[in-house]
Specification:
By secondary structure, the protein is of the alpha/beta class. The protein has two domains: about 5-250 and about 465-475, Rossmann fold (3-Layer(aba) Sandwich), CATH 3.40.50; about 275-460, 3-Layer(aba) Sandwich (Rossmann fold). It has helices spanning about 20-35, 50-55, 95, 105-120, 145-150, 175-185, 205-210, 220-225, 230, 235-240, 275-285, 310-320, 335-350, 360-370, 385-390, 405-410, 430-445, 445-460, 465-475; strands at about 5-10, 40-45, 60-70, 70-85, 85-90, 130-135, 160-165, 175, 195, 200, 215, 245, 300-305, 325-335, 355, 375, 395-400, 420-425. The strands form three sheets. The chain has a nine-stranded mixed beta sheet, with helices on both faces. Strands 15-14-13-16-17-18 form a six-stranded parallel beta sheet, with helices on both faces. A three-stranded antiparallel beta sheet has the order 8-10-9. Helix 12 (about 310-320) links the parallel strand 13 and strand 14. The longest helix has 18 residues, at about 105-120. The radius of gyration is 23 Å and the shape is globular. Bound molecules: adenosine-5'-diphosphate. Adenosine-5'-diphosphate binds near residues 21, 331 and 361.
């Protein structure tokens, strides 16, 4: 029998410490679920400023040293704490992680080049001997390269690497001199065969070349990534390694997002009794000072305001949609042009459009619980979590058929009555508008609405199934 692998899960952010997007949700829920299956999994993160402030009394320093980052001599502290049964290790360096989680530009590249080197150094300093490093997104991209080159033969054992692509849009691109200067990368690696892509040194490319296995966060996105447009320049290496690439659909943490116990929402409800969803809707209406009737459907968005999320479509037809009997709520932050648009909308449609520009976890829960529909017209979507959270709260997603949205939303079929939401396929504003109008028509047909809500709430969007697939994948790598 194969013994259970020991896994070190490495990411740039994780709930409940720091969150800027879905990666943090996954970096919390997946290790927790793997541990429940008996996998010895621990997590390594940068010790961001917010973690220092929030957990200083719980963090225990286990090692301090200095490491070379090119010509620089840099402090490396290793801290440790346990939370909900999981051991977390933190890479401490005030220069790199004392302020913003992501600094942007070359400052951000240097933050995470340091992180990659620090993780490799930390392997000899921690009280854990992983068989597998599970690496996530470009911030960890140089680790497989370092392990296969500069650290080869220097560690106690041959550590295998799994690299998971959460979003290929962000790749960690930089001038080769930046990478070379920090990590002493020999010039002969700066070719399309290794770490060069599109005229830049590319951390994600390095991971795709040097990692033992590659995964991404939905089956459909794994397939899409081999295609030119979705692959964002890395489709070649992904196609070449297609037999070592797999798609495992993300899940959500069903304890954090549970309408029966959620402390952030006005009243609790379940799939078998959704009566209190009305109380959540009423509270949400009051919070956003909507003047629409309680019977008017609320269509919401909880999203980064970027092109990826289909904001161009929303901007194009939202005012047309507001001619219908519907209220609109948005919680999000991002590109200035979209923030401006939604502020304009709030000013033009008081009582019909409720807008909160910013980031607010509790409010997100209240929106998921109190809305009737969640709009998610993404241009591309590796997996997407918002549509799964919405379903858990009986809020029907309206999505574009791309990436993980295809794997996680069953579009309403008028003939069979099946469905957990609504979908449209072409990235076109009026197709989205039609899908939204179809949803509003279903809203007026109460028996169908109740059925779809129930289907959505009973959908198994937890991490258990996927964690089992990761466990099998780890075992296959040993
Ligand atoms: P992505 O990671 O691409 O931003 P996902 O759908 O995978 O998109 O995950 C987004 C996560 O971040 C969800 O948990 C969502 O509820 C949350 N989120 C997005 N924007 C906000 C916001 N402005 N305030 C609070 N939570 C947000």
């Amino acid at each position: 029998m194969t013994r259970n692998p020991q896994v070190l899960f490495v990411a740039s952010e994780a709930m409940p410490f720091v969150k800027t997007g879905g990666l943090a949700d996954v970096a919390y829920a997946l290790p927790k679920t793997l541990a429940s299956l008996g996998v010895d999994v621990r997590v390594m993160l940068p010790r961001h400023a917010k973690i220092k402030q929030g957990y200083s009394d719980k963090l225990k320093t286990i090692a301090t040293t200095t490491i070379a980052l090119g010509w620089r001599s840099k402090y490396l502290g290793l801290q440790k704490m346990k939370l909900e049964g999981i051991t977390y290790y933190f890479i401490d360096n005030e220069d790199y992680f004392g302020d913003a989680v992501y600094r942007g530009g070359d400052a951000e590249n240097e933050q995470y080049l340091f992180f990659c080197k620090a993780v490799c150094e930390a392997l000899a300093l921690i009280d854990f001997d992983p068989d597998i490093l599970h690496l996530n997104d470009w911030h960890t991209g140089m680790i497989p390269f370092l392990l296969k080159t500069q650290y080869a033969g220097r560690l106690k054992k041959d550590i295998r690497t799994l690299f998971t692509i959460h979003n290929i849009e962000f790749q960690g691109k930089m001038g080769f001199e930046v990478m070379q200067e920090c990590l002493d990368v020999p010039e002969h690696y700066y070719t399309p065969e290794f770490i060069e892509a599109g005229g830049c040194a590319n951390m994600m490319k390095a991971a795709l070349v040097f990692a033992d296995r590659i995964s991404t966060v939905s089956r459909n996105y794994a397939y899409e990534l081999m295609n030119g447009w979705f692959g964002k320049g890395l489709e070649g290496i992904l196609s070449a390694r297609r037999h070592e690439v797999c798609g495992i659909v993300n899940g959500i943490d069903t304890d954090t997002f549970d309408p029966q116990t959620d402390p952030s929402i006005a009243a609790h409800f379940s799939a078998s009794d959704t009566t209190n969803k009305r109380s959540c809707k009423k509270a949400l209406r009051d919070e956003f000072m909507l003047s629409t009737k309680l019977t008017t459907p609320i269509l919401s968005m909880v999203s980064r305001l970027t092109e990826q999320k289909g904001m161009a479509l929303v901007q194009h037809v939202l005012e047309e949609l507001l001619c219908e009997d519907v209220a609109f709520i948005l919680l999000g932050a991002g590109d200035a042009k979209y923030e401006d648009f939604f502020n304009y909308l709030a000013a033009k449609y008081p009582g019909r459009a409720g807008i909160f520009i910013g980031y607010n976890e509790d409010l997100a829960h209240r929106i998921y619980a109190g809305s009737d529909f969640l709009l998610m017209p993404s241009e591309f979507e590796p997996c997407g979590l918002s549509q799964m959270i919405a379903q858990r709260y009986g809020t029907l997603p309206i999505v574009r058929e791309t990436g993980g949205l295809v794997d996680t939303v069953v579009p309403y079929n008028v003939y069979t009555g099946e469905g957990t939401g609504f979908a449209f396929s072409t990235f076109n504003a009026h197709d989205m508008l039609e899908a939204a109008k179809k949803a509003l028509a279903v809203y007026r047909n109460k028996p169908v609405l109740r059925k779809l809500r129930k289907n959505a709430m009973l959908t198994d969007n937890g991490f258990l199934k996927s964690a089992g697939q990761y466990e099998a994948l780890y075992k296959s790598m040993m």
